[in-house]
Design goal:
154 residues; alpha/beta; Urease, subunit C, domain 1; five-stranded mixed beta sheet
């Protein structure tokens, strides 16, 4: 078990009621306690490694400054078109999604992501005509793997 006690620095938690603390105790990668150094020294384990920050700043958090992880997370809930090799493959993937999804209303968007025109038999970006073949009842948008191109119909 790995445990650490960080102290003597600018420890910024970003918690409303406790933004700055004197020390932070971490055990197996999990923040166990934050607060003043004297109180935390009472609860740490004997083999806890004490790390003096020497005035440096520590922000115990995950910061996604460029949002790739959130963009990736958004792709997990949509129709993956990465394996598609033709317009027909795209059409089949979208139709399967429509068939298996329990839509609450026809205003819900169908979103596909990840096609690459360079690997499609047609060697072109799909158009709204293809999307009309999939469904005239639902708005559809599909996005190129680069996120820079796409087609939609509403």
């Amino acid at each position: 078990m790995n445990s650490f006690l960080f102290f003597n620095g600018n420890i910024i938690t970003m918690e409303d009621n406790n933004i700055y603390v004197e020390a932070i105790y971490i055990e197996d990668g999990i923040i166990k306690k934050v607060g003043n150094l004297v109180d935390l020294e009472k609860v740490i384990k004997k083999d806890t490694k004490k790390i003096n920050l020497n005035g440096k700043t520590l922000m115990p958090s995950f910061i996604d400054s460029h949002s790739h992880i959130t963009a990736y997370a958004n792709t997990l809930s949509i129709v993956s078109l990465k394996e598609c090799k033709s317009y027909e493959d795209i059409k089949i993937k979208l139709e399967e999604y429509i068939k298996n999804k329990d839509f609450e209303n026809t205003d819900e968007w169908i979103v596909g992501f990840g096609y690459d025109n360079n690997f499609l038999k047609e060697k072109e970006h799909p158009t709204c005509r293809l999307l009309d073949e999939v469904s005239i009842d639902y708005p559809i948008v599909i996005t190129h793997v680069s996120r820079s191109y796409g087609s939609f119909k509403y």
